[in-house]
Amino acid sequence: MPLALLALAVVAFGIGTTEFATMGLLPQIADGIGVSVPHAGNLVSAYALGVVVGAPVLTGICARVPHKRLLLLLSGLFVIGNIASALAPNFGLLFAARFLAGLPHGALFGVGAVVASRLVAPDRAARAVSKMFLGLTVANIIGVPAGTALGQQLGWRSAYAAVAVIGVVALAALAAFVPHQPRGQQAGIRHEVRAMANRQVVIGLATAVVGFGGFFAVYSYLVPMLTHLTGISDTSTTLVLALYGVGMTAGTLIAGPLTDRALRPTLYAGLALLAAGLVAFYFTVHSTVPALVTITFIGAMGALITTPVQMLLMAKAKNAPTMAAASNHSAFNLANAGGAWLGGLAISAGWGWASPNLVGAALAVAGLGLAFTGGLMDRGGRGSESSEVITSSAAEALPEAAPTTSAKG
């Protein structure tokens, strides 16, 4: 089981590297394919669009495919997308390749989360899921800086080629270490879509979009904040972004045990502390050491939210958790776009480079309000969500011959 979780973490590492390395290589990509840097920035949107579309569509189409086989198929598509990105001769084909590379992103995380939760005892499900997410946070510390440096030294195509190699390694690890997990009569697109209509799932996704939008409202403009207000040089911002990743890793490490113990309180605390950290950063951004401490804290609180939201959606989706788990990552990408847009509006309105912090804090508070609303509406009892994931996932995995399987709304 530890090797299976490691294989899932390698997948997450590759996804995190390819998603964020593009941002650091936009000047090289723009120069290489003959477009402006802002125009090249549309490649980031192409990948995000692929995530938003691919998460529900691919999990729906493959609703009856056994989880291990689906992981292998999605990983193969991830490798193909990055190879196509490395070989694309012009902007149009590169745009299409980035969209293709983004398609399996959400589905891989969704299926991987369900698989991880079923590898361990019910009281350790969130810890297993958070271990997979560690690959994503470590990518921000190691993968993205390394990919950016590689692309700057050997050309941007080499970065995508390296990610494709990571994908091949992940594919081999999944094939070797992840056990077969059958999908029985509860599997199917009808069950997945029905689960998505659950009001707790809808509120959970809205919480992710709005609450995590607060995180991205600041993350999107962190570099100009550091250079204009903190006085950090352009060459040092990469190290600060890595520090952000250290905070995210710390938050992910504590999210698993806390979520296993008390899911909703962990979500409430994460959103409240994220809002507090963003307000604090509005004031500390002008001093280097306080700013760096606050950045690390914000990264930790942003990551702390991810695991409880993921587990909540898987629990409330009952016997068909895969699409809900995958759609969580569509929600995060919508949060990325929405948070960046609102933060940009504040700057354009003349409120200053620090203003996205207040926008982000407001979004985090709004997300907390949505989370509280879901808690008040929830009649399932306190602290039961994590164990519900195992119960529902096990029900989904029962063979079709099992006479006692029944779908829970």
Automatic annotation (TrEMBL):
Residues 383-409 are annotated as: Disordered. It is a multi-pass membrane protein. It comes from the Bacteria. It holds the Pfam family MFS_1. Keywords: Cell membrane, Membrane, Transmembrane, Transmembrane helix. Residues 391-409 have a biased composition (Low complexity). GO terms for cellular component: plasma membrane. Coiled coil: none annotated. GO terms for molecular function: transmembrane transporter activity. Its main location: membrane. Residues 2-379 form the Major facilitator superfamily (MFS) profile domain. The chain crosses the membrane at residues 42-63, 70-97, 103-121, 133-152, 158-180, 201-223, 235-255, 267-285, 291-313, 334-353, 359-377. CDD domains: MFS_NepI_like. It is found in: Cell membrane. This is MFS transporter. It comes from Streptomyces chartreusis. The lineage of its organism: Bacteria, Bacillati, Actinomycetota, Actinomycetes, Kitasatosporales.
